[in-house]
Amino acid sequence: MAQDSAQQAPDTSPAAPPRALLPLILPALVVGVVSSLLFVGVSVGAEQLQGVLWGNLPDALGIGRYSVLWIFVMLFATGVAVGLVVWKVPGHAGPDPATMGLNAPALPPVVLPGLLLAAALMLAGGPSLGPENPIIAVNVGLAVWLGRRFRPGSPEPLWPALAEAATLGALFGTPVAAALVISEALAGTRTTGQLWDNIFAPLAAAAAGALTTDLVHKATFDLHLPPIAEPTAGDVLAAAVVASVAALLGMAAVHAFPHLHRAFQRLRHPMLMIPAGGLVLGALGALGGPLTLFKGLDQIAELARDPEGWSAGQFALMTVVKLAALTVAASCGFRGGRIFPAVFVGTALGLCAHALVPGVPPALGVASGVLGMLLAITRQGWVSLFTAAVLVASPVILALLCIASLPAWLLVTGRPQMQLHKDGTPIR
């Protein structure tokens, strides 16, 4: 009985007094706004450069914008450009991106300009990676450097937490994603104080980042797919099957990841590794078509506008090609994140399921496919569930996704992740 009473006892962790939390609000808001503006600046700059590289330039040369020749030329040229940055720019654009996840180390200031440049060139040039990892790393490095300079007495872990939360808020346009990620991270650590005391400042930074992005660079994740009115037993089965298939497909890429990384590392020089990766990506882009290029958010919106516009075979081809392109780009040295292209892979797989079995609603197929793929690629449960749910904006689907996450998680937990230790072995 005494043991049962101890287990049922409420949390007695001391709550932080207001005077301890209030001084954190201003730094959190500043970090949130600055992190968002940096993200928007890089994104807009990359979009403008993309318009030149994939529009103005091929038009001036009389070459088809997305012809096989131009896809090869651009992916190889992007590999050369990023390789030059990694080779010659001070800091070498940061550590090997295959070893980095959303929790970025505090990089020295000398590294940050090269990392930003490499990320912008990658986003504009067409490799299948997103902006999240390099932008988080730059914002963390900048926040830590400025925090030490202007608030030297602040706790050291404060600044990375603020920058990561702010960037996640800016990326997703809502602080909810940041709150979920922080809560998941805190669950695996020994922290003092109550949960909301620990996420108070990061949540403020995430809210500031999200609001700033919404004000200056409006974007939405909602694909406006037809909602599900009432779930059926068939919907439950379909969600579980699609999420599980996506998780298995994602795990195939995860298992291939360290082998591809070792193959590129044998070339030993960024001017060989990254251009070689660009050539492979050019071949994949020529095979999969222009929709399989870039980070994938604009492309999933195009797929969702006409779910019946492609056959099951075409969706399957795009799924496999995009997943292969993600794995190659992440392993050869391009600076970028894996979440956004994984969302495209899950979307294409979900629409393939709808094309094969019309009884699977497009919204359900997309959300389940994204959920399973992100669980395999990121191993971030809350991010996976949140991203899948926000794509379709349907309360009914959220319950189905919670059920579908169970078999998908059993397939991925405890297995290698798509992130490596410095010695090249996968993190588990």
Automatic annotation (TrEMBL):
GO cellular component: plasma membrane
CDD domains the record matches: Voltage_gated_ClC
Keyword Cell wall biogenesis/degradation recorded: no
Main location per the UniProt record: membrane
Compartment(s): Membrane
Keyword Transmembrane helix: yes
TM annotation in the entry: 20-46, 67-87, 107-126, 162-183, 195-216, 236-260, 272-294, 314-332, 381-412
Keywords: Membrane, Transmembrane, Transmembrane helix
Membrane topology term: Multi-pass membrane protein
Recorded GO MF terms: chloride transmembrane transporter activity
Name the record gives this protein: Ion channel protein
Origin species: Streptomyces adustus
